[in-house]
Structures are given as structure tokens and as C-alpha cells.
Design a protein that fits this description.
single chain; alpha+beta; 3 domains; four-stranded antiparallel β-sheet; 31% helix; binds zinc ion
């Protein structure tokens, strides 16, 4: 969502010396999320500022409370206030103190010491075990404690988490059968299924069980690959437990598919006791096994269509990212900023018209005709699209050279 609230009141603008933006940043967790709190139900959730929707947070993801500029935690508000007061009032108070001291000669003694307290330490953000929830309606991503229903923080749409987007297929297997399972995984993906595969779907840092639980929740079915090497029952007991639990919660929207594979020597894997109640098949070929999976799943595969109609096949041309393809103007901006303090200001003069791209006190736009302005602003946009610069205030005014930007600047001739 767009930056709102505190961002506005911590920003001071000095029109005499161009724009001076004061930005106070709050520390985020390792994934870039910032804690927010609902003033109504007091539950905490996390958001990423500057990504997803352009709109501000307007609804609580838990209770649907509607409001704006009310989501910062008390600790964040206290911190922002203390910094803003110090920055805005500190110099003024010092000046006043000096003036009063100068006046206090003789008959009147004025003693004044500005006792602005030091800004509070920034509130720390912990990496807690919240679930990541994507809100496709507004292209937002939030971290929440998973409930049965949630609300989109932008548009307020209610999301029933019990049906949700659980369309993945969980492939449960033993390490030895990785090759076989990988075969299924690739084929299922081609059919349009999103596959959950213990190894690559496990985000680093989550514990194994938590990852498994999450994987199961996101799925509409689990396939147990029971091969002759599948003997170690205890290894899969947790997965079976979770699967049975999901079945209980989701009913027909979740299927358990135990497939018993026959080895080359005619041996079969042993069906674990806890899976015996579920109808299981003994497919003779892998194709038959695939058919059983697709047939059993509650979600149908994508229908046959012309290739250029399939969204996954047609890909939008990616922005080329080689630095030599930048326009001369983009190169000039990047070079100047990287050589200086890394900051770029884009200013629009409202009223008199005209624009400026300022780096280190100089306006890089040489002439104020529309064409020249368009070319230079285009150069700035080019840099932003390639992530060579970052929009600091998300208002298109303050930019900062990124790590990639510095790297690109080093590659420029004459750098
Ligand atoms: Zn709430
Ligand atoms: Zn929405």
C-alpha cells in the first residue's frame, strides 16, 4: 500500500532551499515486513510498505475494522513522534535559548535550557511465526496469524480461509524416491497444478513440521508414494497425521491418495496402517498412477487450449538490464548520483511549470522545454524500472541509488 500517516507528518518541506525531505524509517523484519496493529481488536499483523497496492491500509485483516492512519503500533508512534519533535523543534529551541541568554544581561535573568529528551530507540521488529497471506484482489501481501476468515487490508473483501486458494498438490515421499516423484511433479506442473514438494517448498528457517503443516493447508490433496523403499513408517507419521486432519477440516475439498507402486522385482511397499481406511490404488504404470491422481483431485487441470492463450506460456518481454542500454540521460543521472551522495530529487514546479532532477545541488535537466524534460524524466524512470534507484518516499520525489545501481555505475565508461 502507499505510505500514509506518519510519513506525512515527519516530512518537512523547505521551499526556500528546494525540497528537504526528512524520512524516518522503521526497522522491518528479515522479510521486509512492518508490524501494524488494529485499534479495534488490537491484533497484530505485518505489511510491506511500498509494494503491492497504491492504496493505504483501510481494513483490519482480522476483524474488518475500517479506518486509515490508525494502524501503527503505540511503540512506532512514540518513536516517530520523538524523532520528529527532536528534528523539527530541536534547532528552534536552541536558537530561542541563545536569544534569551543574550537578553538576560542586567536586570532580568532568563534561564532556559532546552530539555528535549533524546529520541526513543527505534522499536525492534521480531521475526515471528506468522503466516504469509497473499491478497490477489489488491495484490497485497500480509503476515497474519491465520484465522478462519480474513479481510483484505485494502478493499475489505472477506476471504474464507477454509476454502481459500488451497490448490496445491502435496507430494509425500521418501528421499529414495525423489527421482520418481520429481517425474510426477514436472508432469503435474505442466497440467497446471501447483505442486508442494517437501524439499523445494520448505522455506529456510521454518521448522520441518511447521513447513509440512503449512504445505498441507495450502493443498487440495496429498499423494503418498508408497514404493518398496517406503518402509520407514515413523518418518511419514506426521505427514499422515496432518493429512487426516486436513481431510477432517476440508472434507471433500481435500483428498488423500495413497498409491502403491510395484518394484521391478514385484515387491510392493507396505501401506501404513493409518492410511488403510483410504481407498488406495496399485497402478501398473506411471501413466496409470498419474491418471489416478488427476481423477482423485478435487481441482480440475487446465483445459486444452491454443498455446498463445495459455497465460503461463506467453511471457511479457522482460526489461533488459544491461547498463549499456541505458539512455545517455539515464547514464548521466546514475553516474552523478553514484559519484555523489547517492540521492536524486525529482521536483515539479507547480504553478510556474518545469521540472528538475537534482543531484548534489545541480539540476541535470539542461532546458525547460517539454521534450527535454520528457527525455530526462524518462531516463529517471528507466533507472527505477531496472531497480538501479529506489523511490524513497514512494512519491516519485526522492530516489536513492541501490546496490545494483552502484554496480551498474561502476560499469559505465569513465566511471
Ligand atoms: Zn481488528
Ligand atoms: Zn483487496
Amino acid at each position: 500500500m502507499a505510505l500514509m500517516g506518519p510519513d506525512q507528518w515527519v516530512r518537512t518541506i523547505d521551499y526556500q532551499e528546494g525540497v528537504q525531505a526528512l524520512e524516518i524509517s522503521l526497522p522491518t523484519d528479515a522479510d521486509g515486513f512492518l508490524s501494524q496493529e488494529c485499534p479495534s481488536c488490537e491484533q497484530r499483523f505485518k505489511v510491506i510498505f511500498g509494494e503491492g497496492s497504491e492504496e493505504p491500509i483501510s481494513y483490519c485483516p482480522y476483524c474488518g475494522h475500517n479506518g486509515q492512519d490508525c494502524w501503527h503500533t503505540q511503540a512506532q508512534v512514540d518513536y516517530l513522534q520523538s524523532v520528529a519533535v527532536n528534528v523539527a523543534l530541536g534547532p528552534e529551541l536552541k536558537k530561542l535559548e541563545r536569544q534569551l541568554k543574550g537578553m538576560s544581561k542586567g536586570f532580568l535573568k532568563v534561564d532556559m535550557t532546552s530539555d528535549l529528551s533524546e529520541p526513543l530507540p527505534a522499536p525492534t521488529e521480531t521475526d515471528d511465526l506468522l503466516d504469509i497471506l497473499h491478497l490477489p484482489c489488491c495484490n497485497e501481501t500480509v503476515k497474519v496469524t491465520r484465522h478462519e476468515r480474513h479481510f483484505c487490508i485494502i478493499c475489505g473483501t472477506e476471504i474464507d480461509m477454509t476454502i481459500s486458494d488451497a490448490k496445491k498438490v502435496f507430494l509425500s515421499h521418501k528421499g529414495d524416491d525423489k527421482k520418481l516423484v520429481n517425474d510426477f511433479k514436472e508432469t503435474l506442473k505442466l497440467l497446471g497444478y501447483d505442486v508442494w514438494f517437501a524439499e523445494d517448498a520448505m522455506p529456510p528457517g521454518t521448522t520441518l513440521e511447521r513447513g509440512l503443516r503449512r504445505g498441507m493447508q495450502d493443498s487440495c490433496g496429498v499423494v503418498f508414494f508408497i514404493t518398496p523403499s517406503f518402509k520407514d513408517e515413523s518418518f511419514l507419521e506426521t505427514e499422515i497425521d496432518y493429512a487426516v486432519q486436513e481431510r477432517r477440516e476440508k472434507g471433500e475439498k481435500f483428498v488423500i491418495i495413497p498409491l502403491q507402486f510395484v518394484g521391478a522385482d514385484g515387491n510392493t511397499g507396505e501401506i501404513p496402517k493409518s492410511l488403510e481406511t483410504y481407498v488406495w490404488k496399485q497402478p501398473k504404470t506411471r501413466l496409470e498412477a498419474l491418471r489416478e491422481i488427476v481423477r482423485a483431485l478435487p481441482v480440475a487441470p487446465v483445459s486444452i487450449d491454443w498455446r498463445d492463450e495459455i497465460a503461463g506460456v506467453v511471457t511479457a518481454p522482460k526489461t533488459k538490464s544491461t547498463v549499456t542500454e541505458l539512455s545517455e540521460e539515464a547514464k548521466a543521472i546514475l553516474k552523478a548520483a553514484a559519484a555523489g551522495d547517492g540521492k536524486i530529487m525529482h521536483m515539479r514546479y507547480i504553478g510556474i511549470g518545469g521540472e528538475a532532477i537534482r543531484v548534489g545541488g545541480n539540476n541535470l535537466i539542461p532546458k525547460q522545454d517539454r521534450r527535454t524534460i520528457a527525455i530526462w524524466v524518462g531516463g529517471l524512470e528507466d533507472l527505477r524500472q531496472r531497480r538501479y534507484i529506489k523511490d524513497r518516499g514512494h512519491k516519485g520525489e526522492m530516489f536513492e541509488v541501490t546496490r545494483e545501481g552502484y554496480k551498474a555505475a561502476d560499469e559505465l565508461p569513465g566511471a
